[in-house]
Specification:
InterPro entries: FA58C (IPR000421), Galactose-bd-like_sf (IPR008979), Pectin_lyas_fold (IPR012334), Pectin_lyase_fold/virulence (IPR011050), SACTE_4363 (IPR059186). The chain is mainly beta. Among the domains are: 128 residues, Galactose-binding domain-like (Jelly Rolls, Sandwich); 176 residues, 3 Solenoid (Pectate Lyase C-like), CATH 2.160.20; 103 residues, no CATH class. The protein contains 4 helices and 52 strands. Strands 31, 32, 33, 35, 37, 39, 41, 43, 45, 47, 50 and 52 form a 12-stranded mixed beta sheet that branches. Strands 9-10-12-14-17-20-22-24-25 form a 9-stranded parallel beta sheet, covered by helices on one side.
Length: 729
């Protein structure tokens, strides 16, 4: 979203030797020939650990604390153990074929006396790579050979009366045709700025970056400001476009500012509706005047923050603002949204909340106002049904790691207060640290090698799809890292596997039309991921604005149980390279998977449907939308006999769906006479339910006839008053 009512204008190696004898000449020639042969041999990849974090299944488990996944979690203190019977098996799916070289087993006292290591390319046909009938347990290193995707240990005779019990089951090998090894870890590149309390002139450096980024709405600069644990005095970190500020502690209270992290709108004459693409996370603030200002609109998350005071979400002067998102944060004082049109807060704690304009939605928030829609328009759910917080970078001593929080069910309040947070720490050496200039081929080779991805701040042009095929892969961006597909490819595809985490990056459509920009699961995906879903968090999409861009559909979710946690999918309405056909993008988000949950879904300005939902049992908590400003006339948006395409459409085949706190706005400024039939369309069935819907005509630029289907009063006039429906059907 850009404005509430009116669009303001935009500012050979060679060597010479003397031959002494014929014999010496012959020997020299022989040696040179041999050396040339050695140098010409292709580099061979060293075997790497392939199994860690992979999908694992087993014939049985002793109890709830001895799951199969414990054998590949990299933690020597957790184990898989089976039932007390023979035979038993544990199977690892490596995600893609690999050339295997060894297996390492770390047995608990209850080990196997007789077992086999078996390999398979398809999970059905097995060959034995190793077998023994005299194992003594302990730590075993086994040489194996073969190409396989699946590795199975089958125990045929136990050494004790207990089951089979493994601390770790490690599989080593190579992928990708034996190319050179891609190293994990390394430095974080020139656009990650790391501070500690003794760093000189912190304020000066932060101000320098803000001056570069304050008005750079479509610029190429990307920055991450990372603060080591400690206390920082007299800091006012103003945060501009494409800037991330974060603490490097495992807990927000480890990094404290006696000062502020500020977003205001002075650059845009007090209008905050274009304060996009920035973030704050994992810090504790003691605001100088008692209240911190975070006056943002879309794609500006405030995560994992502790504000020991109040939080003001409006710009100085209380100009327009169109946010926003808070998660896993604790605000000791009162949150004042003031002029904010809408806001979503999840799994947090607030000391109070002052007001609402059109749509304030809360789930799992301690201290949230009571539900009272539409007067005032508060939508309040006591808990969030499923959530998993965003992965984040932190320092463990002097070693960088990424913490991946565990999934929560029926969450309420922050995840980090009052004890150790459940989750997994992954060392940086298990990430390919992506820096500017990296190619898609190298990125894919790193993924195939079993590495996760950490995109450092920058803009990455790719000429082939980034394929995430391994379960539990983490793809984490710093500083709003941006991926641009140059030749019409899909920027990223995720296989139908468990537990992939995508977080913290922007996909920007290229000038050649892409059929899709992000696909989660292939068409027809059907695996059950309820125990370990894939998640998208702070994953943003843009079509146009920074230059011409086109994509038919931005995000397609085929995998069941996916969590979409805060995304802004935006077809540009200003900047460069925009216009009804210039940045053509018919569909925003299409959900085909079952049991998909969206928490904080922002989708705007698409030529046809902004959101289409085909999967069963889908749920959306908070939706914000504007229809495309630039429709040239009524005919351009006509949908058969229907006037316009709904912002959010549930397919007629769906039996169960539910949504809370959802709004659609129109601002047809090219042709203000355009009429939109409705903002929402859904089948009338007992299992399809909506709560607290609204549509708004901004200043009378276009009108809605209904809210959902043919239900709800029409909007009218220029007074920008919502039409609401509290419950459907």
């Amino acid at each position: 979203m850009s404005v509430a009512l009116v669009r303001p204008s935009r500012p050979p190696l060679a060597a010479s030797r003397r031959r002494r004898t014929l014999a010496l000449a012959v020997i020299t020639t022989l040696v040179a020939t041999l050396l040339a042969a050695v140098q010409a041999a292709p580099a061979q990849a060293a075997p790497v650990l392939l199994s860690q974090g992979s999908t694992v299944t087993a014939s049985s488990q002793e109890n709830g604390g001895t799951a199969a996944g414990n054998a590949v979690d990299g933690n020597g203190g957790t184990r898989w153990s089976s039932a007390f019977a023979d035979p038993q098996w544990i199977r690892i799916d490596l995600g893609s074929p690999a050339t295997l070289s060894r297996v390492e087993l770390a047995w608990e006292a209850a080990h196997a006396k007789s077992y086999r290591i078996e390999l398979s390319t398809n999970g059905n046909d097995w060959t034995t790579a190793y077998s023994t009938t005299t194992s003594a347990g302990g730590n075993e290193t086994l040489t194996v050979s073969g190409d396989a995707r699946y590795v199975r240990l089958t125990g045929t005779e136990r050494a004790t009366g207990y089951g089979y019990s493994l601390w770790e089951f490690k599989v080593f090998g190579t992928r990708g045709g034996g190319g050179p090894e891609i190293p994990g870890g390394g430095d974080l590149g020139p656009n990650v700025h790391v501070f500690d309390p003794s760093t000189p002139n912190i304020q000066g450096k932060v101000d320098e970056i803000f001056q570069q980024q304050e008005e750079a709405q479509f610029g190429s600069g990307r920055h991450a400001l990372l603060f080591k644990p400690g206390t920082y005095n007299n800091i006012n970190a103003q945060i501009g476009f494409y800037t991330q500020i974060a603490g490097l502690g495992l807990n927000p209270n480890a990094t404290t500012f006696n000062g502020d992290v500020t977003v205001d709108a002075g650059w845009f004459n007090g209008n905050a509706t274009q304060n996009f693409w920035r973030s704050a996370e994992n810090l504790t603030l003691n605001p100088v005047n008692g209240t911190n200002r975070w006056a943002v609109s879309q794609a500006a998350p405030f995560r994992r923050m502790h504000v020991k005071g109040g939080l003001n979400l409006a710009p100085d002067g209380y100009g327009w603002a169109s946010g926003g998102y808070i998660a896993d944060s604790k605000i000791d004082g009162t949150v004042g949204p003031y002029s904010q049109q809408q806001w979503y807060t999840r799994d947090s704690s607030v000391g109070g909340w002052t007001n609402a304009v059109w749509n304030m939605t809360f789930s799992g928030v301690q201290g949230a106002p009571a539900a009272s829609y539409p007067t005032p328009p508060y939508t309040t759910l006591d808990t969030t049904p499923i959530s998993r917080e965003k992965p984040f970078l932190y320092l463990d001593g002097n070693e960088y790691k990424v913490f991946v929080p565990a999934k929560r069910v029926n969450a309420r309040g922050v995840s980090w207060d009052g004890g150790t947070q459940p989750g997994e720490s992954i060392p940086l050496n298990r990430f390919y640290v992506v820096k500017q200039g990296a190619t898609a081929a190298t990125i894919n080779a790193a993924l195939a090698q079993g590495l996760n991805l950490l995109f450092t701040p920058g803009v990455y042009h790719i000429d082939q799809t980034i394929n995430v095929n391994r379960a539990n892969t983490v793809v984490l961006g710093l500083g709003l890292a941006t991926i641009i597909p140059d030749n019409g490819v899909t920027a990223m595809k995720v296989a139908d596997v468990d537990g992939v985490k995508l977080a913290g990056f922007l996909i920007d459509a290229g000038p050649v039309n892409s059929p899709t920009l992000l696909e989660v699961g292939p068409q027809g995906a059907s695996a059950d991921h309820s125990a370990n879903p894939t998640s998208l968090q702070d994953v943003f999409v843009r079509i146009g604005g920074a230059g011409p861009g086109k994509a038919t559909t931005s995000i397609v979710v085929n995998s069941d149980d996916t969590i979409i946690d805060h995304t802004w999918v935006w077809r540009a309405d200003h900047g460069e390279g925009w216009g009804w056909e210039t940045n053509r993008a018919d569909y925003g988000v299409r959900v085909n998977g079952d049991d998909v949950l969206a928490t904080g879904l922002f989708v705007e300005h698409f030529n046809k449907y902004d959101v289409e939902w085909y999967g069963e049992r889908g749920r959306t908590i908070f939706f914000q939308n504007e229809k495309a400003y630039d429709a040239p006339n009524q005919a351009a948006i006509q949908n058969g006999a229907t006037k316009g395409y709904a912002a959010y459409r549930v397919d007629d085949s769906v039996e169960q769906h539910e949504g809370w706190g959802m709004g659609s706005y129109c601002y047809y400024n090219v042709d203000p006479t355009i009429v939109q039939e409705h903002g929402f369309k859904a089948p009338v069935k007992p299992g399809v339910k909506f709560h607290n819907l609204l549509v708004v005509s901004l200043g009378g630029n276009g009108q809605y006839q209904h809210v959902i289907n043919n239900i709800g009063s029409p909007t009218s006039g220029t007074s920008t008053i919502p039409s609401t429906v509290t419950n459907f059907p």
